[in-house]
Write a structure and sequence with these properties.
This protein is of the alpha+beta class. 42% of the residues lie in helices and 18% in strands.
Amino acid sequence: MPDRGSGGPSGPRIRVGQPSRRAKTLLLTAGVLAVLAMLFVMFAGFWTDWLWYRSVNFTTVFTTTLWTKAVLFAVFGLLMALAVGFNVWLAHRLRPPLSAMSLEQQSLDRYRMGIAPYKKWLLLGVTALIGLIGGASASGQWRTWLMWVNGTSFGQTDAQFGKDISFFAFDLPFYRFLLSFGFGATVLSLIAAALVHYLYGGLRVTTPGARATSQATGHLSVLLGVFVALKAVAYWLDRYGLAVKSSDIRGQDDWTGLRFTDANAYLPAKTILFFIAGICALLFFTALWRRTWQLPMIGLGLLVLSAILIGGLYPALVERFQVQPNQQAKESPYIAKNIEATRQAYGIDDADISSFEGAATEDEEVELTDEESRELRDAVSEAASIRLLDPNVVSPAFRQSQQIRGYYTFPDNLDVDRYENADGEEQDTVIGLREINIGGVPERNWINDHFKYTHGFGVVSALGTQVDYEEGGGTPVYTESDLPPKGTLGEYQPRVYYGEQTTMYSIVGGPQQELDYVSNDEEKLYTYEGNSGVALSGTLSRAAYALAFGEPKILYSGAIGEGSRILYNRTPKERVEAVAPWLTIDGDPYPAVVEGKIQWIVDAYTTSNGYPYSSRTTLGDTTQDALTDGQRAVLAQQDQVNYIRNSVKATVDAYSGEVKLYEWDTNDPVLKTWMKAFPDTVEPRSAISDDLLDHLRYPQDLFKVQRELLTRYHVTDPGQFYSGSERWQIPVDPTRDGEEPVPPYYLSLRMPGEAEKSFSLTTTFNPNNRETLGAFMAVESDAMSDDYGTIRILSLPASSSVAGPQQVQSRFNSDTQIAESINILERGDSEVEYGNLLTIPMDDGMLYVEPLYVRGANTNYPRMRKVLAVYGGEIAYKDTLEEALDTVFQVNTEGEPPADQPEEPPADEPEDPPADEPQEPETPGDLPALRDALEDAQEALETLQDALRRAGEAQQGDGGGGGG
């Protein structure tokens, strides 16, 4: 009986479920479109990257990197595929003509028959997959390849082998890559060949008789011989690897280089094992003729036994019976090599270390004559420009008075630079940019976020050494402020399209105008006139960016038209990192007004992990301090390094986004190597203008790395280094919660013995496991100075009891009168915040100065209200720096109130400064009553201050000058 629907013998047959020609066409079209869409997705990322690099004029970086990756991928992928594919093909050719009759072979027949029709395609598929994996792994080694091809001599040789350091920095990493690639190809070929031999009967597990045919034996023996030969090469390279090997010596696990056991046991052992492995490899090759594994297995057993006895047991015996009984004497020559290499690799070999002793450095009372007191007091202005404005505290004050609108912001940590005052003298200046804050836009939508609110506006700067006591007390003295900006910086392009806070893309220059700034409640509009960014002039570009940013409106929005350009990669660090992917980027770019433009200055480093005998450091850990956050973290290509140079100074124009790289260290072989790999990307040092040079400074992250190394490597005597008796440690920041190291501070100061002040980056050290002061370190940070980069260290004697930063802070906190005054200041909603604790070396002692800020009730910004100071045994807690200095140097100015009695504030001041700390009564019995009276008076004063403050803020709010 015929099937229903198929027709009878004489009727027509109806096809059920067969697609029509039209449906087939539609399916084919959909498939083609899907493939095209996938290809476009892959193409979009490549195309947008190309457009971006072209927009910043660094296309050679893009093309060089791309072609290097592509060539490495193709060459090594093809080599891997050929190696594995050839051995699979050869194993198939060497299969026995007939399979042995056994259950094992009968079960394998099913698999052989199943893959027989697809053998060619299976071979191609497997080898292609392995080639892709091998090529992808090799393309990731593009930096290693470029450094090997373009390697430049260091002009120095290592202490053990007499080879140029470039061999360890540039050549050895590439040789190790080739070796690891060879191991990978050999192991994969061995596994693949063994599987094919087993599948086709060349290897047998349960079949009676010989376990392997002669053909399989010869083939696998050659592959094992290649593996053992590569192992011999590895032993030879391991000899040189000892010079960059990290080990543990007395708890220092980053100690690098050969030690006594390495030089006298491991080094000869590696040489012996090299020859044994070579002989063993030859024995495996002889199996081609002997068709037996007897001799190769004997050789392999000898190699394994030798590796255990010569490579393991013998060095352990040398360490146990020769080194440990007299370790210091045995290791001293190698410690000396490590000290010398480490100091050279980190640029600390020329550090000027001098002893520092003075009568007033002891933590005790020092009686001074009036003349001596006056001389010391007068010497302070020559010793340092004491910065009262802490750039890491006062950002809220900048926001309160200079943010102007909620869609502007300042970074949490401002920067310190130098600018000339009206008299032409350089002054330490706290500076920040008024950047755009998308989170503060009144109404969030796509147009506002990406077309209207596109840029910040203007520089705000304030004197670092002065505060304004007139406007509420302790507020910044601005040298550049307001909107539009005015001040001492002259004319410059104030618009900030590129900044640390600018992380979103913007589309500018088209029909949609941007908000420039607001003046007298009137919005000023602007159209971007620069040539930065990528032009959205074609449908292809718009589609690519719509896909790249996941925003389809870019493709069809009418807000994009003639002249529209898209700006992205807008933070200074990411722009420099993109155009120079071989550099490590300092975590703290800073702005400067240079030749009428706002320029971000970015310090960049060349690094290596292959400097022989130089100890390693972890950049992420070493550069961490109490102020480091995600925004200020170093951007490192490799975290573990044992060589670093500040070889490049980079600038990013805040308006145009233009990136320039300048050669700074003209003797750095690593930089020369990268300049050969990427020619014409780094401009010569002579191209740096004097105006820009005046704002360059010594970078913080390099300084932090160097100070960490100097806690140990200030010692050059191997015996002292081994004992660790002179080791220092970096103090914990006493002004902040947590256990993070104290940050370094920029400060203009004169080191004892120097003629005049200079802009410096400073830090302190404690002796190991103590809180007293062990040393003070400063590096010349003025790029205009011939001494730029000179490290000067004042080392205190081990017997010194000079208070360190933590002890000084403890003295402030434990002083009864200071504690009582601070308790009064913290009443209600007020909060006390300590500023930077500055350490200033005087010719006869150490001066500590610390501003104290108060966030008062109904205010959200800090104002400097007190100054704390310590010199010798004297401690001061005063309203002004002058009063504090007068007190610690025991000076009273003639005809003025005594130093411990601040002058009355002006009558028209909006609020009185906090009451002075209570004076100690003549008799202890009067103290409680006096305290009660002071507290009652203070409560009444607080009430009056709150009322005055609210009235003043209400008046300011009516004037439109708030932070809305």
